[in-house]
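re: the backbone from monday

yeah here it is again, tokenized this time
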């Protein structure tokens, strides 16, 4: 059975006019020969944010199945609405929720991971319907509770369904023409990239670029799914995500991104003894708090250390509280979330020197202070003052000649 998977994000189905337009895209694809289409849809734009706000106004703890049950409802509505439009246009269709497929996930409510998907039911339904409209972002746990995959998770639903159906392609329709050298809403001179490697977009996505959910890229890379990111607003070719060997020209810096979802915590006056870092980060890991960037300094006399690290903004309070009530010794703790992480990414960095130097020079010229640095083979990230984010992104974009 030849099936096409197409995912439509929130803005692409943001109002009735947009849904009518998407209905036309599907209708044209069927006329052009596509036999069966599995649509994966997000909630209409703004809906999930509103649901999250309504929940957190009542309850702080988001790692709770009721949170998932509430914030997944936007997708139930949009999938049924789109299916209604398709049927009105003589395209046989029905909507499907995560649990009806079922998409089995673990029990990490709010950021659940997909364990397996049984594709039998989908295949059977395709005997009757031309189009199935699946609610993205959701699954079901072994406790029979609805789970959600983390914000932006509908991309992951789409790629996971492509894997489960044994397909090799997945189209992601969104509100920009493809993947750009930087967020085109911040860096106006950003250019669309025609081809990008899995590694590059995985770094960009993990470092804050929300154009694709990082776990959708991880899955695509693992199972060799070709992701095609394209606009639902026009017919521009979009961006193809592929393996590094297939990309002929490897730019030193392919793209840059930023993340505001960072909080910096500094512990001062920690006795400098073996095992202290293991205890601190062990405690945070026990509470499922991800630590990202880390720097340590030792006092001149070698007796005390100070440790600075970053955690996701939503975990800042919890991290500080857990450290305060723990037996870990330190003199002072300080948290700051007026910061952001700016990163440059490119597989060409592996074979080029001086990339970091150029980054630091550019920021220095703009009088931007670097608070923490972290690197990998294909990325360099720096932590800077939140107010300087846009100016850093624009300056770096031009330094690496991405404007041209
Ligand atoms: P959807 O609702 O379709 O899932 P998202 O809002 O999640 O769309 O992702 C698309 C948005 O990602 C764009 O509108 C753009 O502002 C942002 N974005 C950030 N970095 C990039 C990038 N490098 N290329 C393209 N878009 C980017
Ligand atoms: N609606 C969810 C969100 O806003 C999932 C998605 O859009 O991918 O995060
Ligand atoms: Mg998205």
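seq for it, each position gets an aa:
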């Amino acid at each position: 059975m030849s099936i096409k998977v197409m995912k439509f994000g929130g803005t692409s189905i943001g109002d009735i006019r947009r849904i009518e337009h998407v209905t036309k895209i599907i209708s044209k694809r069927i006329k052009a020969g596509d036999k069966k289409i599995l649509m994966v849809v997000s909630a209409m734009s703004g809906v999930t944010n509103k649901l999250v706000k309504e929940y957190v106004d009542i309850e702080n703890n988001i790692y709770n199945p009721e949170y998932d049950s509430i914030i997944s409802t936007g997708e139930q509505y949009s999938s049924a609405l789109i299916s209604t439009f398709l049927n009105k246009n003589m395209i046989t269709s029905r909507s499907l929720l995560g649990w009806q497929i079922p998409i089995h996930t673990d029990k990490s409510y709010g950021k659940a991971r997909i364990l397996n998907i049984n594709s039998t039911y989908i295949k059977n339904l395709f005997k009757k319907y031309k189009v199935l409209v699946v609610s993205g972002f959701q699954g079901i746990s072994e406790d029979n509770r609805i789970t959600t995959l983390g914000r932006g998770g509908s991309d992951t639903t789409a790629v996971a369904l492509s894997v489960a159906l044994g397909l090799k392609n997945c189209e992601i329709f969104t509100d920009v023409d493809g993947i750009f050298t930087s967020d085109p809403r911040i860096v106006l001179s950003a250019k669309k990239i025609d081809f990008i490697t899995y590694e590059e977009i995985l770094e960009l996505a993990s470092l804050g670029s929300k154009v694709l959910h990082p776990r959708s890229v991880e899955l695509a890379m693992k199972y060799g799914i070709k992701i095609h990111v394209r606009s639902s607003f026009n017919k521009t070719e979009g961006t193809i995500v592929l393996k590094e060997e297939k990309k002929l020209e490897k730019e030193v810096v392919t793209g840059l991104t930023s993340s505001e979802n960072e909080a910096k915590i500094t512990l001062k006056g920690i006795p400098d003894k073996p095992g202290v870092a293991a205890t601190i980060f062990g405690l945070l890991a026990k509470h499922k708090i991800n630590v990202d960037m880390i720097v340590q300094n030792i006092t001149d006399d070698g007796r005390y250390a100070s440790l600075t690290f970053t955690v996701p903004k939503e975990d800042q309070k919890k991290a500080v509280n857990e450290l305060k009530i723990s037996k870990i010794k330190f003199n002072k703790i300080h948290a700051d979330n007026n910061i952001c992480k700016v990163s440059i990414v490119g597989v060409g960095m592996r074979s080029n020197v001086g990339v970091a130097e150029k980054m630091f020079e550019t920021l220095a010229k703009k009088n931007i202070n670097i608070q923490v640095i972290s690197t990998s083979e294909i990325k360099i990230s720096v932590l800077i003052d939140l107010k300087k984010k846009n100016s850093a992104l624009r300056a770096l974009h031009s330094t690496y000649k991405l404007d041209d």
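The pocket of magnesium ion (ligand 3) is lined by residues 9, 152, 155, 210 (CB under 6 Å). The mean pLDDT is 95.
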